[in-house]
Amino acid sequence: MPGSPLSPLMHSHHPTYCNPRLEVERPSRWTLWLCISCAAALLASTQVAQPFQFFVTRTPAGQLVNPTGAVMKRSHTELKGSSSLPDTKELHHNTEVGVLSGLPETSFSAEGSWAIAVAPLLMGLFAAYKVVWGSPRGGPPPTAPQRMATVAVTGAALPLGTPLAEVVAVELAGTGHEAAAAVVGALDRSCQRIARLLARANIVGVLGSQGTVNVQGEEQKQMDVISNNILKDALADTGLVGVVASEEEDTPVVFPAATPRYAVAFDPLDGSSNIDCSLPTGTIFSIYDMGATPDSFSFLGPMDRLLISGYALYSSSTSLVITFGKGTHLFTLDPEKGQFVLTKAYVTVPTRGPFYSLNDGRSFDWPEGLQRYIADIKQGKGQWGKKYGARYVCSLVADIHRTLLYGGWAGNPRPHLRLLFESAPLSYVLEQAGGAGSDGKGRILGTTLTALHQRSPLFAGSAADVAELESYGDVQQGAQKYD
């Protein structure tokens, strides 16, 4: 958990950083194959010694042919009912079909029949090889989705479909922050409410501009203001949140909480410029230990103090991605049940991915190092050797979510994104999934927040891709405003 001494891995872009999924104990699929193969071999060996009965064909020359087309070697056979069976010309022209029965002898052997017993044994030997000399424990996690994940800290199982509230209880057990479950619950309800409003925004008339600008000088959409108020009201009702900071407000908002313990920062509706054309948007949040007094100082300081961070993505489905400092989990909103359910535990960012996500339209303003890097990876001249393609939504949550699942990286080379509201919480989510978040020179979570609305460049995604980008140097663009 943040606040504890950081391990060396936490200061690197190691692809398996702090991912408990790699500590999961589960039966190897090769172990299961070994058991199945041995059982099949045993069954086959017993069946070979038993009386057999299978279809054969008799040629005009009097030879018997087995189902594989091989001529039987035994000279004496017993055909039952062959004289009464019609010719099966569609299968074997001018041949008769009968049923061959008897006991196996060395002289009676259909070509290839020995494979019935040998093939399962060979499968078993191969499975045994994979069990003994296959991937060691702690190696790369399986790529196939796991239907069951194990929480390394508590040892409790989390089946897919588990409601968010139950996962939160497991993740926070024994941390001293069990009370934060109520704060996560407030964020859960807020994101569900925002998702419902977005789905009906054009119907109820809450699209378009609010007619105001926020502290960033950006035009506020109606849903920016509505989402901001929804989050503030829900967090205030917990009685545990003493102060919140919003991207939409200049200063923190202090609540008269009964037992204030936590400070919460959020971007209520990231990508809100996309609302009117129904493109994806999101909510980004992070939870901190409040400290002595509920004010802006609750947020200032080293960025690795996060307790919990995550985001909601409002798209074809509503997803919620969250980390408690022990791996990253993906939930999907089930609208019929009205709750988020676990759909992927311990998400792992691919070490590399063939995508980069930033606005290519600004490429002529990029610094020389970034231009060289992009040119190299697009031509397949990077360290990986693959040709990269651009994927850009211009909604940070959407671009980060795709990167989390498919690899590559997303970001902005300008000091444009808010460190507290966007860069730090998203970097925390990615790091806990084995990825990396960088400002182009170093780790985002290694920086210090000195002002509430402090900005920074961001390059976040696959660990190896981000490290390669950093190696080019000169990838940070100066501050520049575009219309």
Automatic annotation (TrEMBL):
Organism: Euglena gracilis
Domain Fructose-1-6-bisphosphatase class I N-terminal: 181-344
Gene Ontology terms: biological process: fructose 1,6-bisphosphate metabolic process; fructose 6-phosphate metabolic process; fructose metabolic process; gluconeogenesis; sucrose biosynthetic process
Any Pfam family the entry gives: FBPase_C
Lineage: superkingdom: Eukaryota
UniProt-recorded name of the protein: fructose-bisphosphatase
Cellular component, GO annotation: cytosol
Hydrolase recorded as keyword: yes
Keywords: Carbohydrate metabolism, Hydrolase
